[in-house]
Amino acid sequence: MSSFQDFKLPGALMRALEALQFQSPTPVQEQAIPFGLEGRDVIACAQTGTGKTGAFCIPLAAKLLSGKPTDIALVLTPTRELAVQIEDFWKQLTRFTPDLRSACLIGGLSFSQQTRALKQRPRLIIATPGRLNDHIEQRTIMLAQTHFLVLDEADRMLDMGFAPQLAQIAKFLPASRQTMLFTATWDGSLDKLAQKYLSNPERVSVGSTARASDLIDQKIISTTSQLKNETLMSELRQREGSVLIFTRTQMRTDRLARYLASRGIQCGRIHGGRTQAQRSYALDSFKKGSTQILVATDIAARGIDVSKIAHVINYDLPRAAEDYIHRIGRTGRAGNEGQALSLLTPEENGEWRQISRILKKSGSPVPEIVKYVSTPENAADAVEPPPPRVMRSAGGNRDGGFSENRRDSGNRGGGNFDNRSRGAPRGDRGGDRGGNRDRGGNSNGGEGFQSRSSAGTGAPSGRVIRPSGSGKIIAAPRAAY
Description:
Elements: H1 11-19, H2 27-37, E1 42-46, H3 52-66, E2 72-76, H4 80-93, E3 102-105, H5 111-119, E4 124-127, H6 129-137, E5 146-151, H7 154-159, H8 163-170, E6 178-183, H9 188-197, E7 202-206, E8 216-222, H10 228-237, E9 243-246, H11 250-262, E10 268-270, H12 276-288, E11 293-296, E12 311-314, H13 321-328, E13 338-344, H14 349-362, E14 369-371, H15 376-381, E15 390-391, E16 403-405, E17 417-419, E18 465-467, E19 473-475
Parallel strand pairs: 1-6, 1-7, 2-4, 2-5, 3-4, 5-6, 8-13, 8-14, 9-11, 9-12, 10-11, 12-13, 15-16, 16-17
Antiparallel strand pairs: 18-19
Helix pairs in contact: 2-3, 3-4, 6-8
């Protein structure tokens, strides 16, 4: 198929695709969409960033338009961010078909609002397994008319332990349905999943899911745990454009974000321990370019569509070698070149050997290891300042500074803080709650970690990383604290 017109889609969908400037289907779309339109079960295996969302949303919309008005489609995803992204694409795809409403059921958002959305009888339901089961238990949703099921990023759902939730959901689905399964990798566990939920599926495989894109320039630097932050700072100074940094755990994500803030570098952070509002704010800021650096766990390695990420940095190597491909696949997308950097410590040599084997087996280039050489200038630049003073008074923090607040009221200044109090909230008036660990509010809603700000204004002062006219990451001189 050289054009979407060859699929003979409804006119309203064709107009939407033209508005989206979709002219030619990607390889996975070219192979999967015809089977989807025929009503066949489908297994599609392709790398991230190959257009899998369109490969199932387009046939779903066509089938819903041509079917009964009571038919429902269900898309299950492993992460909240992916669910939101799918709904965003669905709304653009159905802009000329207002009857194809959708509801997004994910944790971290209002259950009652989702219940009200379900009462509007949406034709597409996009959900994470846990929240969908919550609605099933509360009897706020009926799945008897769900004749179309999509399991997106199925391998990731199994990795995250969603198999029991999928089995529970399947009890409420009609036996006669069309099921499509999309994945970036394949192993024996997915064979069992496919046998359980699909019937005589057509198989679509595009490229090698273990091969790194030729558009990605890979680099690996050998360092030590003690010099890792210094190595990172040295590399950040040399890079232009947006940077996505991967860490291994939630705690390390917070710690690295806090360290970058101490060096005057504003960044967002995403991991499973943050609220949905905080995660959405961080991702939106990164997409819009107001935040150039995003620190994340592997929650951001799959399905997060941020265009033109210039650099991916593996601050920690992933535990699973396959995740290396998914991580660096966040750059070098849509024909754009990208750079991927990995920081290798002696403790991670085993992980790198596994990654190297996968790269060699798939025919991907294996980067040579370059040893980091510390310099006095880099060492001085990377020194972490002393930890902030712990405040235990009863009043609120009004200076907007970077502090650890254990007091009884909220932070009014908008700076980064770590609030462990149980006091009455001030309310989150700006969207994100920064580093707040309870219900206390950040009245300015600034994202996550940023440099110290002047009293009462929330405006950053001191050393701040900001884009220059060319997009290069530069630093203003450090102010005395």
